[in-house]
Amino acid sequence: MLPSLIIVLTLTTCTYGENPAIKILLTNKGLQYGKHEGAGWIQDNLKRVTLPDITGRIMGVQYTLTNIKISQCDFPEPSVEFSPDVTGFKSSFPGLSVALKGDWKTRFGFIHYGGTFNLALFDVSVMSVVGLGKDADGHLNVTSDNCSAQVGDVMIQFYGGASWIINRFVKHYKERIRGELEAKICPLVEQYTASLEGHLQAMNVSFEVFEDLDVDLRLTDFPFINASGLHLGLKGEFYSNETHEDPPFKPQPFTLPEQTGYMLSVGLSQYTVNSASYGCYSAGHLQTVINDSMIPPCSPVRLNTTSLGPYIPQLPKLFPAGLLMSLLVYARDIPMFNFQPGAVKLNFLGAIKASAIQANSSLTPLFTLNADLEFSGKVWISGGKLKGCVAMDNFTLTLAASEIGPFKTDGLENLVKMGMKMVVLAPLNEKLAKGYDLPRMKHGELVNTALNVEEGFIAISSDAEVWSAYRRFN
Ligand SMILES: *[C@@H]1O[C@H](CO)[C@@H](O)[C@H](O)[C@H]1NC(C)=O
Ligand SMILES: *[C@@H]1O[C@H](CO)[C@@H](O)[C@H](O)[C@H]1NC(C)=O
Ligand SMILES: *[C@@H]1O[C@H](CO)[C@@H](O)[C@H](O)[C@H]1NC(C)=O
Ligand SMILES: *[C@@H]1O[C@H](CO)[C@@H](O)[C@H](O)[C@H]1NC(C)=O
Ligand SMILES: *[C@@H]1O[C@H](CO)[C@@H](O)[C@H](O)[C@H]1NC(C)=O
Ligand SMILES: *[C@@H]1O[C@H](CO)[C@@H](O)[C@H](O)[C@H]1NC(C)=O
Ligand SMILES: *[C@@H]1O[C@H](CO)[C@@H](O)[C@H](O)[C@H]1NC(C)=O
Ligand SMILES: *[C@@H]1O[C@H](CO)[C@@H](O)[C@H](O)[C@H]1NC(C)=O
Ligand SMILES: *[C@@H]1O[C@H](CO)[C@@H](O)[C@H](O)[C@H]1NC(C)=O
Fold first, then answer.
1. pLDDT band at 470 (very low <50, low <70, confident <90, very high)
2. Ligand 6 pocket test: which of 288, 289, 290, 293 has the largest number of ligand atoms within 8 Å of its C-beta?
3. Which residue of 9, 73, 368, 471 lies most exposed, with the fewest beta carbons within 10 A?
4. DSSP H or E run through 23
5. Residue 222: strand, helix, or coil
6. What one-character DSSP code corresponds to residue 47?
7. Residue 362 contacts by C-beta under 8 Å, 6 or more apart in sequence?
């Protein structure tokens, strides 16, 4: 009994991990596009690479090749594929031919010689498996898991002091040089992987988004690969940099639809948006003061005790001379977004604290109203822009407290509702109809992007396009 209970407990604690709030799927289409662009970039940039020095010894004679540069490279399109068994990528670079040039130095006893050399490597093949993992801090982790390299043939020609002897000599050791160069390739691959790993370790997993709102994008799970592609799960939580508090709700599991016709899919759960909402709420950002100067000039109703008399009869009686008023508007609770198929809903529980502004600018509290609002919206992508529309589904105003005695809120409710529609929703919908540009990357953009609101999350699928100018001029 006890052992089986322990097993059940262990299994449930293992499976009960943290649900990712953002999911990313890189499909094979995305991988192949990335590879093609990457190969082009490598081809364009290889000539700027200086390879590490090579030191060797032939029959007791030490030689050093320095300042090695690639003068020409025939770089057939490599193959890159997902490798599910090691969770990583397997790359093959077959049939490379490389011409190198550089300086050589050698020493026979006390005599130094030196000059330049040309080196050609033919039929080079490199196979490398890079594994992906996750470290304790949630960084993506890369390791070189397997590498093999073959060099088909080598031609080397030395120029400069005593090179005529060396050139004859080298002919006999071509096989040995070929082997030594072959043995240098995988350590080079491992060195580059290690330097990439170093960059990944140095990368932040939290980023400042607004002034004091950060987003946590650490990996929650190990990356995994299946027939659909590479899956990454990110924490996707916003938090206030002051409080660092987790919201009082948890991300719910969701299944990102597999859109393998696109390069990339991203699932953004309502948790991410609600955590931002919580961050703003707990940092006290969801409040504002409204005064008469903010009411549009065309409005017949002003924010003063005379103008509001028809709605709140006590006001003109209490302040016969008429006083300006101010309203403190704030959220009573965390505004919660709810993603439903095709629609985004928002519940906003707010309060309005009204005060009269005395001549000496001290505030006389008058009453507090609770304002409960329900909005529903649609978002879509068209013409490369994010567009949307918002409607107010419900609005109720109730008197929560009053320093001036009770009054009916129906008239005021209609007034505020109309004001909301005219002052807030109409300009907002105008902006949403024009749309917002999709986020651009430094060297490319998203194309062919589709967005769907699903139960609990938004699914975005997209292709990407790297600007070719970037390759050529960078
Ligand atoms: C990276 O991953 C490998 C294997 O997955 C692991 O051995 C190594 O410790 C990890 N590195 C860090 C810094 O966690
Ligand atoms: C590396 O790859 C080669 C060829 O695919 C394979 O024979 C070898 O077992 C692999 N080594 C490891 C450590 O996975
Ligand atoms: C990481 O974050 C720290 C502090 O927030 C910042 O100083 C640093 O520049 C960031 N590093 C990178 C690579 O963005
Ligand atoms: C939070 O961010 C704001 C704005 O960037 C900064 O002024 C403040 O010092 C930060 N607070 C903490 C605790 O890092
Ligand atoms: C790949 O894994 C995801 C996430 O677990 C799953 O939803 C999907 O069905 C899998 N796809 C295939 C083709 O197995
Ligand atoms: C109204 O608020 C604005 C901005 O907070 C402020 O500049 C202005 O002086 C205020 N006007 C009155 C009449 O209190
Ligand atoms: C109050 O508003 C009315 C317009 O409804 C205006 O005529 C009056 O001058 C305003 N009173 C004050 C004190 O601003
Ligand atoms: C401001 O004026 C009001 C009303 O005339 C008065 O009750 C209050 O004591 C005054 N406050 C100050 C700080 O003078
Ligand atoms: C609007 O909200 C009130 C209370 O919050 C509720 O009683 C009413 O049924 C809602 N109306 C609609 C149309 O949802």
1. low
2. 293
3. 9
4. strand 22-27
5. coil
6. G
7. none
Q: Which ligand places an atom closest to the C-alpha of 241?
A: 4
Look at residue 368 and tell me whether its pLDDT is greater than 70.
yes
C-beta of 291 in contact with ligand 6 (< 6 A): yes
Q: What is the pLDDT of residue 54?
A: 82
Q: What is the mean pLDDT of residues 56-81?
A: 85
Residue 117's identity, in one-letter code, is F
Q: Is 80 exceeded by the pLDDT of residue 109?
A: no
Chain CA centroid to CA 274, Å = 18
Shortest CA distance to 397 belongs to which of 377, 425, 367, 422? 367
Q: From CA 315, how far away is CA 306, in angstroms rounded?
A: 7
Q: How far, in Å, is the centroid of ligand 9 from the Cα of 315?
A: 29
Are residues 408 and 397 in contact, defined by beta-carbon separation less than 8 angstroms? no
Beta bridge partners of residue 340, listed in sequence order: 343
Rounded to whole angstroms, the Cα distance separating 346 from 390 reads 10
Backbone angles phi, psi at 191, to 5 degrees: -65, -40
For 259, the token pair is: 């859109």
- Per-residue pLDDT, 17: 61
Answer for the pair 179, 152: CB distance below 8 angstroms, yes or no: no
Tell me which residue has tokens 């938090």.
239
Cβ of 354: how many Cβ atoms within 10 Å? 25
Nearest to 352 by CA among 312, 381, 306: 312
Residue closest via CA to ligand 5's atom 7 equals 255
Residue 331 has which token pair?
């959220």
Q: What is the pLDDT of residues 121-142, one digit of tens each?
A: 999 999 999 999 999 889 999 9
Q: How confident is the model at residue 8 (pLDDT cuts 50, 70, 90)?
A: very low
Q: Which residue in the block uniquely carries the two structure tokens 């330097």?
A: 195
Q: What is the pTM of this model?
A: 0.84
Distance of CA 459 from the midpoint of ligand 3 (Å): 29
- Return the amino acid letter for 260: T
In tens, the pLDDT along 186-213 reads: 998 899 899 999 998 988 888 888 878 8
CA gap 181, 458 in Å, rounded: 51
Q: Which two tokens stand for residue 36?
A: 């093609």
Query: How do residues 221-269 score in pLDDT, each as one tens digit?
Result: 999 999 999 999 999 999 988 888 899 999 999 999 988 899 999 999 9
With vertex at residue 201, the alpha carbon angle to CA 139 and CA 85, rounded to the nearest 5 degrees, is 55
For residues 429 and 389, the answer to whether their CB atoms sit within 8 Å is: yes
